[in-house]
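User: Hello! My lab partner asked me to get a predicted holo structure for this protein. The small molecule is fe (ii) ion, SMILES included with the sequence. Please write out the structure tokens.
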Amino acid sequence: MELPVIDLSPILAVGPTDPQSEKLCEVVSRTLRETGALLVKDPRCSAEDNDRFIDMMERYFQQPPDFKRLQERPYLHYQVGVTPEGVEVPRSFVDPQMQKKLKAMPEEFQPATPRGPDPKWRYMWRVGPRPSDTRFQELNSEPVIPEGFPEWKETMDSWGYKMISAIEVVAEMAAIGFGLPRDAFTSLMKQGPHLLAPTGSDLSCYGQEGFVFAGYHYDLNFLTIHGKSRFPGLNIWLRRGQKVEVKVPVGCLLIQAGKQIEWLTGGECIAGMHEVVVTKRTVDAIKAAQDQNRSLWRVSSTLFAHIASDNVLKPLGHYVKSEYASQYPPIVAGEYVEQELSIINLRGKAGDGDNLEN
Ligand SMILES: [Fe+2]
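Assistant: Hello! Below are the structure tokens for the protein in complex with fe (ii) ion.
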């Protein structure tokens, strides 16, 4: 199954409330509902921007572990800087209920079984303003910039802001498509704890077919966005349970529904389950990269967009009367995030705690 690509250019020209945009808003909400994912093309986020970001992150992740560990802040629960491989744990590895559900799935759609924590590195970079008055003050930590990367701050901030701009347009379109006011989601996102959180996976060590980089999970934030990765490997599960390997066309962005949009729509749009594994197509891309002497680090240019921590998650507008609304009782977004993290939290053992996936 091919996901449709939504070109945002006409929407940026006339706005999502223009009568011409109505059909596209409907496609956005329907695709998110049926697949948990969406491909968009935003003229403000070019393939060159994505390349510039990935080039820098490849150069970073390729540094020796001792260098990267200088950017590690375990005492700040990895909220900023680098998280080494082997720290983040997929929910399917620690949640017996989820394991039971997976065993009941038809074999062809079952996810790969992770053998332990995810073998991927991650870098956390905060994007956008934070509230000065909040019950959920993030740790008062300076952003971490590795030595020898003078372009770091500009590259991270510019990619981060571009991704948030794309998410905001999609969030407005989705709100309209779901029959809510245009700013139903974006007004709740203001000053949210958005995080640019690219991952790096070393395919020169872990390039065997079937190897799991990110075990089956959902994202606990509102919407997640990525540019095209140089190595395929992302599988998503459609609402009806089929597993689909995602193909992101050049210059397009992939958006995935997280748990917070599920809450706000009373289960109309559920969080998309996904995993990252080495597939046949990944192996082909590894061979091509080797032939061309390119980096074998798989970088994902992920940004997690959040509902602001002090806002309440609850079914919005007409979704308050939806069939499943009682499964989504009001909860403050910051509390919800803490609750989710406590399930997969191995802080006592490994120092993990701020993995924004689940
Ligand atoms: Fe994820």
